[in-house]
C-alpha cells in the first residue's frame, strides 16, 4: 500500500534540535553589538575627542620620554616638567591648527557664495557634448540645490571644532598626568605580571605602528598639499591656499580622500576660469601628483608597518564614516591597526586578524621578537 505523502510525521521521529546555548550566545552577541553601536552614535562627540586625544598622546609620548631622560648639566629634567611642556606644545599646535582651519573654512564659504550664481551653468557646460537637452536637465537639477543652506549647515558644524579642540586638550592633559602610573595600574588591574607585560607589548606595538602611519601620512600629505597649492597659485586660482590645506587634510582619508581632493581642485578651476583646457591640465597634473605621492612614495616610506588589507580599509572607512562621519574616516585606519594587533594576540580572534591583514600575516616574526616591553610602552 502506497504511503500518503500528506500523512503527519510520526511523533517518535527524531529531528535535530538547535543548541539553545548557541542560540542564546548568538542573540547576546547581536544585542551587545546593537548596544555598542547605539552608544558609539550617541556619544560620538566625546568618543571622537577621546580617540583623537589618545592618538596625539601616543604620538608625543616617546618624545616626552626622551625629554625626561635628558640632563642640563647636573640637573635632571623631571618627568612632570616634560609632561607639562608636552601638553603646552600640543595645546598650542591644536589651537593654531583649529584657527587656521576655521579661517580657511570662512574663506571658502565666502568665495563659494560669490560663485553660487555661475557654478550651475559652469557645471552644466561639462555635459554640453551630450546635447542641449542633457545640459538643460543638469542645469535645472543644479538650480534646485540649496547651496546656501548646505553652507550654513557646514558653518554650524565647523563652529563645534573649537569645543572639540578644548575637550581634546583636556583629555591629553589627563593622559599625560596618568602616564607615570600606567605600568603599576596595568599590573594591578591584570593581577599577573607576565600577563601585564604581554598587554604592554600589545599596546607598544599599536603605538609604534600608528605613529609610523601618522608620521608618514603627515609628511606625504604636507608635500602633496604644498605641491597642489603651487599648481593652483600658478594657474591663478583664488582658493589656492584653501585647496592646498584641503588637500593636506583630505589625504588622511585613505583611498577616497585623494580622489575627492583632485576632483575639488578641477571643479574650482572650471568654475573660476570657465575654460576646459586649463581645467584638464590642472586635473592631470594634480592627479599625477596624487598618484606618485600616494601610490609610490607613501607605500615605499610606510614599508611593511601596516600590512592592512585594502578591502578591509574600505570596509573600516565605510563603517566608521557611517558611525562618526568625517572624523570617523580620519580615525578608521588607526582603529583598524589596533583591532588587527589585538585580534592577532588572541587565538580565538586570530582569523579576524588574518582577514584584516594584507598577506594573511598579521604579525611578522621579527616584530614579535623585537617588540618593546611594558616599561618602554609606558615611559
Shape: globular
Separate helix tally: 17
Percent range for β-strand residues: under 5%
- The whole-number mean of residue pLDDT values reads 78
Strand-and-helix sequence, N→C?
A: HHEEHHHHHHHHHHHHHHH
Biggest sheet, spatial arrangement of strands: 1-2
Low-pLDDT sequence parts: 364-379
Write structural notes for this entry.
This protein is about 80% helix and about 0% strand. The chain is an all-alpha fold and about 375 residues long. It has two domains: about 45-190, no CATH class; about 190-379, no CATH class. Strands 1-2 form a two-stranded antiparallel sheet. Strand 1 and strand 2 form a beta hairpin. Helix 8 packs across helix 9 (about 195-235). The termini are far apart. Mean pLDDT is about 80; it is low at about 365-379.
Task: Give the structure's gist in a few sentences.
This protein has 379 residues and is mainly α.
Task: Name the descriptors.
78% helix; 1% strand; 379 residues; mainly alpha; 2 strands; globular; two-stranded antiparallel sheet; 2 domains
Topology:
Elements (H helix, E strand, L loop, with lengths): L19 H23 L1 H25 L2 E2 L2 E2 L2 H37 L3 H7 L6 H12 L3 H12 L2 H18 L3 H9 L2 H42 L5 H11 L5 H18 L2 H27 L7 H15 L1 H20 L4 H7 L8 H6 L3 H5 L1
Antiparallel strand pairs: 1-2
Amino acid at each position: 500500500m502506497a504511503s500518503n505523502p500528506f500523512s503527519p510525521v510520526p511523533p517518535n521521529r527524531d529531528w535535530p534540535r538547535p543548541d539553545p546555548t548557541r542560540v542564546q550566545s548568538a542573540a547576546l552577541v547581536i544585542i551587545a553589538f546593537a548596544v555598542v553601536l547605539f552608544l558609539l552614535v550617541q556619544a560620538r562627540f566625546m568618543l571622537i575627542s577621546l580617540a583623537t586625544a589618545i592618538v596625539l598622546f601616543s604620538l608625543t609620548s616617546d618624545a616626552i620620554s626622551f625629554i625626561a631622560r635628558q640632563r642640563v648639566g647636573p640637573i635632571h629634567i623631571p618627568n612632570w616638567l616634560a609632561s607639562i611642556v608636552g601638553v603646552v606644545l600640543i595645546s598650542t599646535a591644536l589651537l593654531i591648527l583649529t584657527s587656521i582651519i576655521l579661517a580657511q573654512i570662512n574663506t571658502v564659504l565666502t568665495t563659494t557664495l560669490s560663485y553660487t550664481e555661475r557654478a550651475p551653468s559652469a557645471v552644466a557646460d561639462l555635459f554640453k557634448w551630450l546635447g542641449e537637452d542633457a545640459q538643460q536637465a543638469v542645469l535645472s537639477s543644479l538650480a534646485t540645490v540649496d547651496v546656501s543652506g548646505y553652507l550654513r549647515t557646514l558653518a554650524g558644524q565647523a563652529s563645534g571644532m573649537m569645543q572639540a579642540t578644548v575637550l581634546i586638550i583636556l583629555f591629553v592633559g589627563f593622559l599625560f598626568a596618568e602616564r607615570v602610573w600606567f605600568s603599576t595600574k596595568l599590573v594591578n588591574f591584570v593581577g599577573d605580571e607576565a600577563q601585564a607585560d604581554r598587554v604592554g607589548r600589545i599596546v607598544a606595538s599599536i603605538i609604534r605602528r600608528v605613529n609610523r602611519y601618522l608620521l608618514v601620512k603627515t609628511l606625504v600629505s604636507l608635500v602633496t598639499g604644498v605641491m597642489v597649492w603651487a599648481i593652483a597659485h600658478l594657474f591663478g586660482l583664488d582658493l589656492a591656499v584653501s585647496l592646498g590645506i584641503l588637500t593636506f587634510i583630505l589625504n588622511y582619508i585613505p583611498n577616497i580622500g585623494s580622489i575627492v581632493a583632485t576632483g575639488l581642485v578641477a571643479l574650482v578651476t572650471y568654475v573660476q576660469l570657465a575654460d576646459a583646457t586649463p581645467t584638464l591640465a590642472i586635473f592631470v597634473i594634480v592627479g599625477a601628483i596624487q598618484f606618485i605621492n600616494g601610490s609610490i612614495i607613501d607605500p615605499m616610506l610606510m614599508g611593511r608597518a601596516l600590512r592592512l588589507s585594502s578591502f578591509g580599509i574600505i570596509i573600516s572607512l565605510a563603517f566608521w564614516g557611517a558611525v562618526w562621519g568625517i572624523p570617523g574616516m580620519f580615525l578608521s585606519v588607526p582603529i583598524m591597526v589596533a583591532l588587527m594587533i589585538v585580534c592577532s594576540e588572541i587565538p580565538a580572534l586570530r582569523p579576524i586578524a588574518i582577514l584584516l591583514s594584507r598577506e594573511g600575516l598579521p604579525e611578522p616574526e621579527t616584530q614579535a621578537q623585537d617588540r618593546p616591553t611594558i616599561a618602554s610602552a609606558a615611559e
